[in-house]
Amino acid sequence: MISNLDYSTLQQLWWIIVSVVGSLFLFLTFVQGGQTLLWQVAKTDLEKSLVITSLGRKWEMPFTTLVLFGGALFAAFPKFYATSFGGAYWVWILILFSFIIQAVSYKYRTKPSNLLGSGVYELFLFINGSVGVLLIGAAVGTFYTGSNFTLDLYNRVTWDYTLMGINLRGVEAAFSLFNLSLGIFLVFNARVLGALYLLNSIDLSSTPDLETRLRKAPWKNFLISLPFCLYVLVCILFMKGFDVDAAGTVSLIGSKYLANLLAMPYLLVLLIAGLLLVVYGAFGTSFKQSDKGIWFSGLGTIFVGLVVLSLPAFNNTAFYPSKLDLQSSLTIYNASSSLFTLTVMTYVAIGIPFVLAYVAYVWKLMDSKKLTTAEVTDEESY
Amino acid sequence: MDFDLSLVNWSRAQFALTAMYHWLFVPLTLGLSFLCAFFESIYVRTENEEWKGITKFWMTLFGINFAIGVATGIILEFEFGTNWSNYSWIVGDIFGAPLAIEGIFAFFLEATFFAVMFFGWNRVSKKFHLFSTWMVAVGSNLSAVWILVANGWMQNPVGMMFNPETARFEMQSFFDVVFNPVAVSKFVHTSSSGFVMASLFVLTVSSWYLIKGRHVQMAKKSIVVASVFGLLSSGFVVFNGDESAYVVAQKQPMKLAAIEGLYKGQTAAPIVAAGILNPKKQPGDDQDPFLVKVEIPYLLSLLANRSLNSFVPGVDDLIYGNEAQNIEGVGPKIARGKTALQDLAQFKQARKENNSQAADLALAKFRKNQDYMGYGYLNKPEDAVPPVATPYYAFHIMVALGSLFPVIFAVFLYFTLKGSLVRQKWLLPIGLISGLLGLMAQQSGWVVAEVGRQPWAINGLLPVQAATSNLSASNVQVTFFMFLGLFTLLLLAEISIMLKQISIGPEGGTLK
Fold first, then answer.
1. Residue pLDDT, tens place only, B413-464
2. Which of B315, B297, B293, B310 is nearest to B396 (CA)?
3. Sign of torsion, CA B252 B255 B257 B260?
4. Residue B510: its chain A contacts at CB < 8 A?
5. Do B104 and A351 make contact, defined as CB atoms within 8 angstroms?
6. Most buried of A318, B106, B112, B251, CB within 10 angstroms?
7. What is the pLDDT of residues A261-293, one digit of tens each?
């Protein structure tokens, strides 16, 4: 059946798969959000231990999903992989750094003789949750605002944005208010999710102070994220977008993304539903003592993520536009792998639901009982 | 062709740095995951709490090592893009697939069950916990499968064709890529050598306890399991090393010539068991490549072609050609490669100008020489020669150590079974350093594989200088030192934590 699918269907399918993986990553950034909350919500060693142990059982999930996001882009859209990673060198290097330091921090933080002291490992976790997520947001923002590259006849990338004689190689993405706002929104949304997750995962009966602080966090962080979220939304509705005509010529046209939303009304539905779910989860947890907020806000984040990643890619739009040379812009059709490779990878993707199923099963099994104080003072803690 | 050699070299240095740091930890992960699964299986079977303690102790060390392996691993995947973006575009259609499959099937298996392995003791059933430990072992070795499929393809590119329209190679057969003989032999060799590495690590730690007279029962029990596992896998590594050498001889004769220091090809070629290279030797001159050497007759021919009297080509034969043996030199290949690159440029230009007649003409000319395209980036035949000394010494260190390991395991097993291991005062120090020897062998193996591949990123198709990103060298210099500093810091932290945990030992060794 898969071998009968035509090329453009497969290209669209793979952008959807990549978007789903990316959106799942945004949901899983509750780990990163929780890391940035650590110093604010946990004051005693016991509270810290509860927070870190709870997050520590899940930290590999966003990490692995990010790696898969990269791998899937490499396999399905190698021109994007080569152009963005090789071009916006410094943005990606800094993001990677923030994940290297995360990977060791959980295991090493409380171990004796850990050389740096637990405070440094906590700082590493904070950097990962703040700078890491911010830069990922800014990088996604360039799907809308464009980047500074050209491609030659052999599709080799040249990146050109100099400030005081230095080629910034992607760091300039953070100079755009739009990109920056998207990044900040994601950082605070991750904090909303982080607090919701911790409330859901920890048995707080013996640490009432921790509960009080965690209860306040979702709504407070949501309110901080709101202006950034609204700014991004308003920009998306009115900004110029990178349109591709039938001949493949790219041009900037006004309100392109608004037109895309209207042309794909299900995305509009998804966007509104997503935002409402995020609000509902945060509100219900802060004011109605619910512990299930993570599932609502989490699903909402996935919906919003799908819209953010689909909107600049479908309906004849260039998802990785070049500001320097419009015709170098990448679309899901000119950046993809060959028909053969996409077909092979689609067969491979049949395994994804199976993977999701066992991840969900084990998650449920491990989280059926809340994390107790007894457990972290026993042996199984970070 | 003009390339920024400083950029090429810094990019290579950075990739080598990341790969070698990564490779300090991964072999241990590959093997220790299985050893933990063995220990826990014995515990579940015997219900003896002592085995649970042993399992948890080794799992603690596994976890410390695993974390830094993951940290160094994420860089490798993305460095293809950041530092080798031209490579990523030219071969991404083939190379990306195994990396994505690795992510989907192997990494999630590891990540999901890793959490159960460490936090599930009181949350899931004993059987499910054991199952999870096995899944971590399967997952980590499965990730080795896919990354070595990718690496094997760089050594021996198969199952694809060049598409001039997109200026990249495109996949033609997925199964040719997966069942590439180089990939298969690499995976078998790498994972079994990982088993050896972990077994040596267990010997090292256990020998230290025996020397100190601490945790003697645990040390002895661990040694039994590790030396059986180590003996079986090191025997297998030796056997499979022979297969690896055969595949190299068939698919990468230049690499074989380099690792043997063979300049003039021979029939009934002897193998150099040990020797010191002449540092002044250049390809094509008449100097003896060796200052001193000890040879074993016939063995290289046997190893390379499985026939005692066969001809094994040397560096000179491969770059200057050898008509009698029907070997084409690199000179004519470079000429054809340059023609191919010119024709390709004409084709691209004609396409840009929408001149389909000129495009068809250029394409037809390009097709005649397209297989030599990669050689067009070289300037002289000698450019096709990898640095000889590095892979030569690395190979000989690896082989010597690899042959020593089965002996070490056999001796340990013998005295353990005889019950007199603790009295063998001469043996325990050997056990103590055996882990370091294992690391040396591991690193040497990696050097043989990757330095021996030079100058190619993709063997015969794309030299490293044409594979880099379009960066100024200073960017890569800065990131090189950033990585060097960070990795070294984390390595020191890892060693410090590991030593402390070992000195705390199993009783106090909390499972963190």
1. 999 999 899 898 999 999 999 999 999 999 999 999 999 999 999 999 999 9
2. B293
3. negative
4. 379
5. yes
6. A318
7. 999 999 999 999 999 999 999 998 888 888 899
